[in-house]
Amino acid sequence: METIYERLGGVDVVLALARAWHARCLADPVVSHAFSHGFHPQHDERLAAYWGEVLGGPPTFTRTLGDQSTVTRMHSGNGEHHDMDRRALACFEAALDDVPVSDDPQLREALTTWFGWAIQRMGDYHESADDVPAGLPMQHWSWDGPTSG
């Protein structure tokens, strides 16, 4: 069966989506706070590698950058931020049109459902990044929802 990554269009489309989402986040007065401390110069490429792997693409992130614990730690210890999370999801939904991603309703539903779920998972350790255990299984998302993580 075709993966979400494949139907989305592969590496180039995932990178374009990561760039569009990041640009929207930087322009948002609430979400931009998450980037106010600065970010890695290859943020978009790293994000695309993570997203791609989670959505059924190659394991580029885990081969070169880290594991799920690495990603979760980067997003932990910042307290709860429900408004920011809602706005980040809105930025993602808008970025789907910026790219543009196919109008395929199954693809769009899978992507927005995944992104909402992923935001919640990144908030599992809002008290401290030190609470994130080592060796968390890589999150993976299929047409039927989470397959791990």
Automatic annotation (TrEMBL):
Keyword Nucleotidyltransferase: no
Alphabetic keyword roster: Heme, Iron, Metal-binding, Transport
InterPro entries: Globin-like_sf, Globin/Proto, Hemoglobin_trunc
CDD domains the UniProt entry points to: TrHb2_O-like
Pfam families per UniProt: Bac_globin
Protein's recorded name: Group II truncated hemoglobin
Lineage: Bacteria, Bacillati, Actinomycetota, Actinomycetes, Micrococcales
